[in-house]
């Protein structure tokens, strides 16, 4: 069993990496495409099911790789069609994945780490700290599992947001391999512009991502209009100050010509006053950007309150008056603890007593 645990996950590998492995085995190159087809189009759960591969090759695959095991601990369905999973991993850790249904298709929100070390004071993901990074395959498996849920309805995953627990840019290589697998035409073939990766502002990775030459959307969690307030809400700001984050955003826009989304969680009486909106507008004016205003989810451990509805609209109005595009995120799954980390936090309470 220990030997089994040391094998890499087959979902960790891009088609180029599978082609390299196939070549090493002395097999014809087209076999890599067949394997990818079995994994992502037919979505089988074992190498034995890959019936157009020769038996010796299936045996080699079985000896060399393993499938990701995601055990469904909990599945909660919201009145609005949102489905939230709590999956158990092979090492008894747990992660969350969410399927959100929109009128334009089905979106999956994936997790990139078990827990999180960023420490945002309004977020449940960070309770208990970071346990470990996920491999690319463990992130891929969340989308495959979600697609399997949609298969009987003849629906597909049409977009992906990397906004679940964890900081994807602190698990950069695995996140990038995950993205390469998702956009591969031979795989799930998700359009690049239908994928958004969200970061809390890990500046070196933001600069690196600007060089990747992708059409994938970038979202930055800022949640404050200045250094002092952002440091209180997001300890990561002490490592990567607000000005550096904004400068990295400007570099990304200049390099790619793509618009950035700024995520701003409105917290009652903390960062949601008209003066905050005015200050934020002055920072963002002239940038190719969009602000996504998020009424904060109530997290019992954090004791923050939601911004009143009228104040949310006033915040949006001030930004727009200053020519900063802003929308208010439509809430989904509010009745099923859909805030990142809440389900896992409850699970940890029950399993640790």
From TrEMBL:
Q: Which reaction does it catalyse?
A: adenosine(2503) in 23S rRNA + 2 reduced [2Fe-2S]-[ferredoxin] + 2 S-adenosyl-L-methionine = 2-methyladenosine(2503) in 23S rRNA + 5'-deoxyadenosine + L-methionine + 2 oxidized [2Fe-2S]-[ferredoxin] + S-adenosyl-L-homocysteine; adenosine(37) in tRNA + 2 reduced [2Fe-2S]-[ferredoxin] + 2 S-adenosyl-L-methionine = 2-methyladenosine(37) in tRNA + 5'-deoxyadenosine + L-methionine + 2 oxidized [2Fe-2S]-[ferredoxin] + S-adenosyl-L-homocysteine
What are the record keywords, sorted?
4Fe-4S, Cytoplasm, Disulfide bond, Iron, Iron-sulfur, Metal-binding, Methyltransferase, rRNA processing, S-adenosyl-L-methionine, Transferase, tRNA processing
**What InterPro entries does the database record attribute to this sequence?**
Aldolase_TIM, Methyltransferase_A, RlmN_N, RNA_MTrfase_RlmN, rRNA_lsu_MTrfase_RlmN/Cfr, rSAM, rSAM_sf
Q: Which cofactor does it need?
A: [4Fe-4S] cluster
Cite any additional comment in the entry: Reaction proceeds by a ping-pong mechanism involving intermediate methylation of a conserved cysteine residue.
Residues at which [4Fe-4S] cluster binds:
116, 120, 123
Which Gene Ontology terms describe the biological processes this protein takes part in?
Answer: methylation
Top-level taxon of the source organism: Bacteria
Q: Which residues form the Radical SAM core domain?
A: 102-335
Function text: Specifically methylates position 2 of adenine 2503 in 23S rRNA and position 2 of adenine 37 in tRNAs.
Q: How is the cofactor bound?
A: Binds 1 [4Fe-4S] cluster. The cluster is coordinated with 3 cysteines and an exchangeable S-adenosyl-L-methionine.
In terms of one coarse class, where is the protein primarily found? cytoplasm
The organism encoding this protein is Cohnella kolymensis
Name its cellular compartments.
Answer: Cytoplasm
The enzyme's E.C. designation: 2.1.1.192
Amino-acid positions noted as binding S-adenosyl-L-methionine in the UniProt annotation, renumbered to this chain: 166-167, 198, 221-223, 297
Family as reported in the entry's similarity comment: Belongs to the radical SAM superfamily. RlmN family.
List, from the UniProt record, the residues annotated as the active site of this protein. 96, 340
**Name of the molecule in the record:** Probable dual-specificity RNA methyltransferase RlmN
* GO molecular function annotation: methyltransferase activity
Q: One Pfam family from the UniProt entry?
A: Radical_SAM
Primary gene name: rlmN
- Gene3D superfamilies recorded: 1.10.150.530, Aldolase class I
Enzyme class, top EC level, equals: transferase
């Amino acid at each position: 069993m220990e030997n089994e645990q040391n094998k890499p996950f087959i979902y960790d590998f891009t088609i180029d990496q599978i082609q390299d492995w196939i070549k090493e085995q002395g097999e014809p190159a087209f076999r890599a495409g067949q394997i990818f087809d079995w994994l992502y189009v037919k979505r089988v759960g074992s190498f034995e099911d890959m019936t157009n591969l020769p038996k010796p090759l299936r045996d080699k695959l079985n000896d060399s790789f393993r499938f990701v095991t995601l055990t469904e601990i909990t599945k909660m369905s919201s009145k609005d069609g949102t489905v939230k999973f709590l999956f158990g991993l092979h090492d008894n850790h747990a992660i969350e994945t969410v399927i959100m249904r929109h009128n334009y298709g089905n979106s999956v929100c994936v997790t990139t780490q078990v827990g999180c070390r960023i420490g945002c004071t309004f977020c449940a993901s960070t309770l208990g700290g970071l346990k470990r990074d996920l491999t690319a395959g463990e992130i891929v498996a969340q989308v495959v599992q979600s697609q399997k849920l949609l298969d009987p309805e003849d629906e597909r995953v049409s977009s992906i947001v990397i906004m679940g627990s964890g900081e994807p840019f602190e698990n950069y290589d695995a996140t990038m391999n995950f993205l390469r697998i998702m956009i591969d035409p031979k795989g799930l073939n998700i359009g690049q512009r239908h994928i958004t990766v969200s970061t809390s502002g890990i500046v070196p990775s933001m600069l690196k991502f600007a060089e990747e030459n992708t059409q994938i959307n970038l979202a930055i969690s800022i949640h404050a209009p200045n250094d002092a307030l952002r440091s209180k809400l997001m300890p990561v700001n002490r490592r990567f100050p607000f000005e550096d984050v904004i400068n990295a955003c400007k570099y990304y826009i200049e390099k790619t010509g793509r618009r950035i989304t700024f995520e701003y969680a409105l917290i009652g009486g903390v960062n949601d006053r008209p003066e905050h909106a005015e200050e934020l507008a002055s920072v963002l004016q002239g940038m190719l950007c969009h602000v996504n205003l998020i009424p904060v989810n109530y997290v019992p451990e954090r004791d923050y309150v939601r911004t009143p509805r009228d104040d949310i609209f006033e915040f949006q109005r001030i930004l727009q008056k200053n020519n900063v595009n802003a929308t208010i995120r439509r809430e989904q799954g509010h009745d099923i603890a859909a805030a990142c980390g809440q389900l896992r936090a409850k699970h940890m309470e029950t399993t640790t007593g």
